Amino acid sequence: MSAHNRTWLCCVVFLDVVSFTKHHMQAQLAIKSHLDAQMQKLLKTYARDEYILLDRGDGAAVCFLVEPETALYFALDLRDAVRAQNNSSVPYEIRIGINLGPIKIVLDVNGDKTTLGEGINCAARIMDFAGAGQIFVSRSFYEVIGCLSQEYAELFSYLGKRADKHVREFEVYEVAAARTGSDGRGAAAPPIPTVLPASVTWEPEALQSRIRHLTEEIGPMARILVQRTAQKAGSLEELDRILATPDIRIVPDRADANPSEGHFDRALLDSAARLLGEY
User: Fold this and answer.
1) Beta-bridge partners for 98
2) Angle 68-84/221-230 helices, nearest 10 degrees?
3) Residue 191: beta bridge partners?
4) How far is CA 89 from CA 21, 22, 92, in A?
5) Closest CA relative to residue 69, chosen from 202, 228, 182
């Protein structure tokens, strides 16, 4: 089967601005500019072939072709960034739906990549059930992400079955349910600590280098660890210091790097293998 005909199983984050059409044109332009800037800031640490970003006018859809945790962190970080709105002249809220499902990657009329299929259609339906500041996910996404760790499982609240306008039912879960503050607006309450993006423009190769080295130690979670750490580090030196632990050493690509560095103790690996074998 050719790559062109391949069916991708990916995580789709579908979002839109609540009551977007009720704003006047000037406000809509300001909102869209601010939202686009926040998404680009969060996506800049990913390689361009790891996601497909689709503009939906009053929102967007992001199809992630990498680890499912990526979609969850992206949604949480984007919600926090929108709520901060330090540089936005028009306050607004977004709602988000996440689904894990099949898509086809095709070319649109302009020759750019776009997607179609149940994966993105269901993400849109899940988003339709959400309200301002809420992140809803499908059962398929919950079953994959929820089994990865107890901490992830505790992020979700089961909301039951919801029917769309075609009377098609979906089992829906809410992520990190929002609290209502004294000002009437929702306040984020994510169990996972979040950080404000750093004002650092990272060279893609610098981050990719660290992802490659860390992947040898901890596997695919290395990408998410590096990307989230990059949001709070102010320099490469600080990034390496935060990532470094007694058992993990980040070794930048340089001529004097010691190839013997960056390995777990064998006894530690054997112990981890026995513990993880239960799952």
Assistant:
1) 13, 137
2) 20
3) none
4) 17, 16, 10
5) 228
Predicted confidence (pLDDT) per residue in 116-170, tens digit = 888 899 999 999 999 999 999 999 999 888 877 777 778 898 999 988 888 889 9
